[in-house]
User: Fold this.
Amino acid sequence: MNSLRLRGGRRLKGQVEISGSKNATLPIMAASLMSMGEVVLSGVPDLEDINVMSMALEILGAKVKREADVLVIDARTINNYELPESISRKMRASNLVMGALLGRFKRARVAYPGGCAIGVRPMDLHLKGLRNLGYELTEEYGFMEGKAQQGIMGKEILLDFPSVGATENIIMAATLTPGITTIRNAAREPEIYDLQNFLNGMGARITGAGLDTVQIEGVKKLGGVEYRVIPDRIEAGTFMVAAAISRGDVFLGNVVLEHLQPLIAKLREIGVEVIPKSTGVRVIGNHKYRPTDIKTMPYPGFPTDMQPQMMALFASIPGTSIIVETIFENRYMHVQELRRMGADIKLEGRIAIVKGKTALEGATVEATDLRAGAALILAALFAHEETIISKVEHIDRGYEKIHEKLERLGVDIRRV
Ligand SMILES: CC(=O)N[C@H]1[C@@H](OP(=O)(O)OP(=O)(O)OC[C@H]2O[C@@H](n3ccc(=O)[nH]c3=O)[C@H](O)[C@@H]2O)O[C@H](CO)[C@@H](O)[C@@H]1O
Ligand SMILES: C=C(OP(=O)(O)O)C(=O)O
Assistant:
């Protein structure tokens, strides 16, 4: 198992190129299963989660080839609609093949997904939505099994909560289901909009993604497409916070500023200078930050995937900042590790009270999940002495070559 050794105290300086979005690529890869042509994806990040999704597609019978940041997927030959537990358990996003397989075969058998220990993460909203379309869904022996009933037909579906994955699974199944499906209270994340654009590129008829009502007119068949995925807004956000916490000066290339608005607003409130440029964004830190509050919400609210990183930043700002985590009930695993580094954080249910300090101390800590690991890297940039972060495999799920990118910005970091 890998660890990262990181010596804090340096101001980050220079330029970093943001990779393609993990959370956009994963549903797009799943949706490729419905294509009767060749899918060529570019801007695909080199990440463990992407490798797992590639394996899932291959197990289902697709051919997947990778060259640099381009992935070529040929699903014309797939003949299997069952995803075994050995692969499903490796990550939460494996559940996204469900909607695609139902669309393509009108049958699917998918073992319950695994993923980070940030909450229970049930599948009820996915299954309820798919049932509404006329698919019969059963849950037995650790599998979700679906098949089309007579006369499946697009419908009005009202999601009880704007779940990202449920919205994506329903969009995919509805794409190859006759009639018109309308999803109300749909998730509005940029990754949903990217999925819509990708599917429409293959011949789907979807409108409204990015708003709370998405309409899908079922088509009979999808063809091939060449498509570039959007930049990763969470990787970008993490590097923005890295610039801020190290009181550095960093230019980020390959970003979509609109996707970063909830974070930019908070960074500016704190006193971080965020300067949009035509080819990216420049972030300049200083020593006069003010504490603030965040409440995680579905997009365009503040993203839960940036909550741990903001907690690290708050721990470096004298005064009291408050965090309310409303999306995942167990997304405070990083608190205990940040405390080892001297952070003063109290938890009251879903509320975290962070009393910032002028210094943190290096320690031996564990990345308990992906963004918790990112928060520890950020805290380590601010800490005196050396921090050793174990279980880096969690961080590698979502950050492409993170130690190399940080090293180029002047961080004293080693992978051991
Ligand atoms: C691969 C990917 O894109 N992952 C992202 C996706 O996860 P994911 O799609 O799993 O997140 P959801 O939006 O579905 O989950 C949000 C909340 O809804 C609950 N829920 C969800 C589905 C369901 O059927 N029942 C239910 O109760 C979850 O337990 C959670 O508390 O969106 C999350 C919220 O922005 C992000 O943190 C993840 O990084
Ligand atoms: C929670 C995340 O991913 P996943 O949904 O794949 O667990 C994340 O990207 O922060």
Remarks:
- The pocket of uridine-diphosphate-N-acetylglucosamine (ligand 1) is lined by residues 23, 26, 92-93, 119-126, 161, 163-166, 187, 191, 304-305, 327-328 (CB under 6 Å).
- The radius of gyration is 21 Å.
